[in-house]
Q: What sequence folds into this?
């Protein structure tokens, strides 16, 4: 038996990662997700599809992203060597575009002319609007009205790119409601519309295909560290909202048994306060948005709103593959509070001259402990999945600076 | 004997050469007592089958009217157990009107499929429509339902082609709910001529009665649908009466308005002679 196939075999034919995942959607959508799966299987085997992806990744997105040795941060903590996988240097400033590119190319193959997306912080919305502009496709982005208010620069960017923004006031007006509204739109416009989901959640095959598109991060990182250090890292780390950047980094290392995986969830005001976004550390399994996974919910199965300083992590669920990796013990999941993330944001900015997004700041907040624990012989790769330009206004507000 | 109650309702209508009226209301909207009064009013005014909505925070297949109904119900702290208790209360005086719970998977999942099935059976529930449990995902629930004869009522839609219909029909019981438009509840209504062939196909493949819903609000629309289907489902139009009652503060308006609408719809449906 080839042991390298043990993690790659997931999801199974029913779209399951162990007991997580699946296709929990209204019947209207079933034929659509079955079509999408069939088209994705074909595209994966088509050298022309891969060639087009590779070309755009290289010349439009700017891949491969560098693997950077964060020397001063390493010195500061006095432990393991810390490398950043610099996906914040991608076009549009985050890892999101890796996935959007793949999905929009799939949509084109399927003859779809209208792309819809949900967005929280706006990074997935901006990336989707960008690719749609590039290919001349109509783009509609659903965004909770709370997020429209707190992410104004990204709303303007999306409009500049030609996207229509639909503020969502239903429910609580955040990312989960934007996703509900996108699903309602998709149910209504089944003929011409492709739903470009931004994270490794949703009904099968989304968790699989988004993972596959994001796995470029881990594939590059694995080759880069072998070239730089001549060995595999001891730890790969990333922040987790839905978990697409983390799974993208983790997945190509899953078969490397010596490599520990650490995901970091948003603990908001603290998990004990109930105001957080840590589905794995503070939730339990349930069914939402097409898949079975860990969710923030009441004992009666009603969904609880997430809270995080980072709009990109502000979601009450998590991708089903992370639920599986956690329950099998293959990955560990820690958490970081709003305040710890703010502190890490400033530390990284001052020591490395890199302004991280608030999302990876959550992973940065835990990297010191991990580095000390490993000692100076250790090696860590942390996914710098987004840059912090979008966050400077909200950080200023938290720091009490009037801009 | 739950499924029998549903079958009997279709038999009665057939004997009267008419289609059935399926009416929907959200349990606990705006409170459980009003829902109880509304259930009785619907039954007294010609509703053959009643779908009772169980509220969920994220109703992704529902339009604005039923979304708001769910929020009102949740604001009143209605739980799935409350919905079952409401049905048990209704069953004290009514042994014949089939009651179907309509909702989403997570509250049922949170209670546990086995616990829910037993409790639903005890309360006098006849079946459920769980919107986000397609045939691919409802096997564990069906297993539990089989112990008590509860029906799994499946949805078919304009996107359900014949091969897919086979899958939808497998394991379905009671009746088939044909969603007339691609869209959410309360959206525009379908042209009956455009879906007649789909309904015929659904009936042929499933061997079950087919009820049509989504977008039907008036007696005239109900009559048009009654010509091509075995039953007509009306939801948002009933729910709007609960909203009006809530907003006016006069909760008695909910059962009154729903009763009047049920009367109008059932008479319109009865006016269409079925073979």
A:
């Amino acid at each position: 038996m080839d042991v390298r196939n043990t993690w790659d075999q997931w999801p199974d034919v029913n779209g399951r990662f162990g007991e997580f995942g699946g296709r929990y959607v209204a019947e209207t959508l079933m034929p659509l997700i079955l079509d999408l799966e069939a088209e994705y299987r074909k595209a994966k085997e088509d050298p022309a599809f891969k060639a087009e992806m590779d070309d755009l990744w290289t010349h439009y997105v700017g891949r491969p992203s560098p693997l950077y040795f964060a020397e001063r941060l390493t010195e500061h903590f006095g432990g393991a060597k810390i490398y950043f996988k610099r996906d914040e240097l991608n076009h549009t400033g985050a890892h999101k575009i890796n996935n959007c590119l793949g999905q929009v190319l799939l949509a084109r193959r399927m003859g779809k002319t209208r792309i819809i997306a949900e967005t929280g912080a706006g990074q997935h919305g901006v990336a989707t609007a960008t690719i749609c502009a590039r290919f001349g496709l109509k783009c509609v982005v659903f965004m909770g009205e709370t997020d429209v208010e707190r992410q104004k620069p990204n709303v303007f960017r999306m409009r500049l790119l030609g996207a229509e923004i639909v503020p969502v006031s239903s429910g609580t007006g955040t990312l989960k409601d934007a996703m509900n509204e996108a699903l309602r739109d998709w149910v209504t416009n089944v003929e011409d519309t492709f739903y470009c989901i931004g994270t490794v959640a949703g009904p099968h095959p989304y968790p699989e295909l988004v993972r596959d598109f994001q796995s470029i991060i881990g594939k590059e990182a694995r080759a880069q560290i072998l070239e730089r250090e001549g060995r595999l890292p001891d730890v790969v780390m990333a922040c987790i909202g839905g978990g697409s950047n983390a799974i993208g980094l983790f997945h190509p290392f899953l078969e490397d048994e010596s490599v520990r995986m650490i995901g970091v969830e948003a603990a908001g005001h603290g998990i004990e306060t109930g105001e957080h976004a840590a589905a794995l550390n503070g939730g339990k399994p349930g069914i939402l948005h097409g898949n079975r996974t860990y969710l923030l919910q009441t004992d009666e199965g009603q969904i609880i709103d997430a809270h995080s300083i980072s709009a990109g992590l502000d979601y009450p669920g998590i991708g089903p593959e992370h639920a599986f990796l956690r329950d099998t013990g293959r990955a560990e999941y820690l958490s970081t509070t709003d305040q710890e993330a703010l502190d890490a944001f400033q530390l990284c900015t001052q020591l490395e001259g890199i302004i991280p997004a608030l999302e990876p700041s959550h992973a940065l907040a835990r990297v010191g402990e991990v580095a000390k624990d490993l000692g100076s012989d250790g090696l860590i790769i942390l996914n710098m999945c987004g840059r912090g330009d979008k966050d400077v206004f909200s950080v200023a507000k938290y720091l009490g600076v009037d801009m | 004997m739950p499924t029998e109650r549903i079958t009997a309702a279709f038999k009665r209508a057939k004997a009267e050469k008419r289609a059935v009226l399926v009416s929907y209301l959200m349990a606990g909207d705006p409170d459980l007592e009003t829902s109880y009064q509304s259930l009785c009013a619907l039954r007294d005014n010609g509703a053959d089958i009643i779908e009772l909505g169980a509220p969920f925070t994220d109703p992704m297949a529902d339009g604005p009217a039923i979304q708001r109904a769910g929020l009102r119900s949740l604001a009143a702290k209605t739980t799935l157990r409350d919905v079952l208790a409401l049905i048990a209360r209704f069953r004290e005086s009514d042994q014949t009107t089939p009651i179907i719970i309509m909702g989403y998977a997570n509250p049922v999942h949170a209670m546990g499929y086995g616990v829910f099935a037993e409790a639903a059976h005890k309360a006098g529930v006849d079946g459920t429509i769980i919107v986000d449990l397609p045939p691919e995902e409802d096997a564990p629930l069906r297993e539990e339902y089989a112990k008590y004869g509860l029906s799994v009522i499946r949805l078919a839609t304009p996107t359900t082609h014949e091969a897919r219909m086979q899958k939808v029909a497998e394991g379905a019981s009671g009746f088939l709910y044909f969603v007339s438009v691609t869209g959410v509840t309360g959206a525009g209504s379908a042209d009956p001529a455009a879906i007649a062939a789909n309904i015929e196909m659904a009936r042929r493949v499933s061997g079950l009665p087919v009820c049509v819903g989504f977008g039907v609000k008036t007696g005239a629309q109900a009559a048009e649908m009654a010509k091509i289907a075995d039953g007509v489902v009306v939801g948002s139009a009933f729910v709007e009466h609960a909203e009006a009652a809530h907003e006016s503060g006069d909760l008695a308006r909910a059962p009154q308005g729903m009763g009047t609408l049920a009367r109008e719809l059932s008479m319109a449906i009865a006016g269409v002679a079925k073979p």
